[in-house]
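[Q] Does anyone have a clean structure-token version of this?
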Amino acid sequence: MSMQNQVGQAGTLDDLLLDVRACTVCEAHLPLGPRPIVQAGSTSRVVIIGQAPGRAVHESGVPWDDPSGRRLREWLGLTSDEFYDPDIVALLPMGLCFPGSKPSGDAPPRPECAPLWHDRVLDLLPRLRLRIIIGKYAIDRYVPDSPPSVTEAVRRWLDDQGGDIVLPHPSPRNQRWLRNNPWFADTMLPLIQARVRDTLAAT
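[A] Here you go.
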């Protein structure tokens, strides 16, 4: 059975999200089994495209329910209530399930997820105004002519300040990157927070 036949053809966003959350396409590759994590509403104005759920998120079922998520909400200037309101924010990781761990951190997101689900979800978000692209895997898919490094991709957004917002991963493992790039917190975060606020305020 092909992946497309397995997941079917959902008509509404609610139907599609039911299919997404029931997906088992990558089951054989997931050490803790499938538990797709996604959030979206028909009036979502911002979509955050990150990497993949970590172990803590897999266990809670709540996206970005970990130190990375707390830092991300601070970076964006969003309250928890705003962040977890699907009518405001859609959360669509590159890999929908926890992919397992490696000695240096989590394994890469499963490559099946984004081609299978992303366009179908995004097509059903008619009020979407802003995409926030986080980390190398999302950058490679969503940033045209993406530079070879995350740092260059983030700096390019700072230079242009248009289109999709591009961020490094907010993981505590990136603390060295933040120390080595003080311009990110000093210059870029205020601009990002203003852009997010303007997007949410727009009718």
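[Q] Thanks! Anything notable?
[A] The CA atoms of residues 94 and 116 lie 10 Å apart.
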